[in-house]
Amino acid sequence: MANNKYFNNLFHPEIKERYLSNYKAGTVNQYKNMFFKSFEFENKLNKDLYNFKIEEIVEIMNLSDKKDTSSLSRSSSIIKSYIKWAIENGFSDNYETLYKMKSKWYIGKFNDDISQYYFSECEISMVENACVNAQDACVLRLLFEGICGESLSEILNLTINDIEFESNTLHLTNKDGSQRDIVVSNRCIGIIKLALEQRQYIKLKKSSRIPFLDLLETDHVIKNSITNTHKDGTRRPEVVYRRLKNLEEYVNLKLNPNIVISSGMLFYAKLLMTMSQSQIFNYKLFQILAKRFNLETMETTYSYYKKKLLDEETINKVYLSKRKFDLTNLTAKNNNDGNVYDKDTVIKSLRNFALEAENREKLSSNEYKRKKYSPSIDVIRRHYGTWENALRAAGLIEE
Length: 399
What we know:
Helix content: 40-55%
Oligomer: single chain
CATH architecture of the largest domain: Orthogonal Bundle
Largest sheet: 3 strands, antiparallel
CATH topology of the largest domain: hpI Integrase, Chain A
Number of helices: 19
């Protein structure tokens, strides 16, 4: 959802003002409203609207107050005109999106029931349990519990030194240097501990030539891989977007930051309503939620979110209605017990198996699988490529 803190802001204002200079005052105001709505998306994705993919444009337009064909076509025309202008003036080469917008196929992608895009806390937990990498689960959980900041800076800046494990308190630092403290769940702390311990990032695509990437030895919770580290050592939001993109392809669910954060807001709103025994998400409850998710607490901000997301109907649909997500396949994706295994753990497990194997002269992957050892054969192959390579690494067969 758009953050009212950023409303009336423009991403790359000098470029957008140059574009708007081609139009009369009345048209400028209409076009600016579209750019105001797109600002937070642009800011979090760290790219201008003229470089958006069609799916990202659909997401922005799905938040429009009016979803009739006429209103959607008008919004589409504004965005399409802007992309076309950006291409003509050398700011973009996003011909693919421009072509797809001309076809108008995406108009059918809109649905007035916005609850279908958001996850309950239980559903988020199921996705976390399916994560092969604790790093992925940690990104998901931090966003869900309200940790974000400008350009995801609260997540990127978080180190082990910012965590009070006994009180579950995180000391967060935003991009502008401002700080705040937030108390998170026991589950969040548990996932953070696993993320801190992870040394290798297992690639989720089985076709990858190299099954894993070594992570930098650092105090940061979310770690860059050595191969994707910038020469100047900067930590950029792309690492978070890349992790979420890999994860959403793996579980076949839409998991961008806005959806996960909004899902967290809905959970927290429901929790506050339950604790206060209220059937209505009122302004007093919003003030508590706003502090957690770093929103302004003005009544205008409350009205905005009450209209866009935090209405009782949407909250109840996410938590009381039959859900559209099919999550039954996630259990099968989990590597036996939800843990993340590095190479050292794999080697120890193989050596323990060798001591108990029926035929120590010929160690069988079928026996290993049949006896339900952890980690799974799939995880072992992600690390070493083949069963035989893993046995060699463990010193169980000769080179």
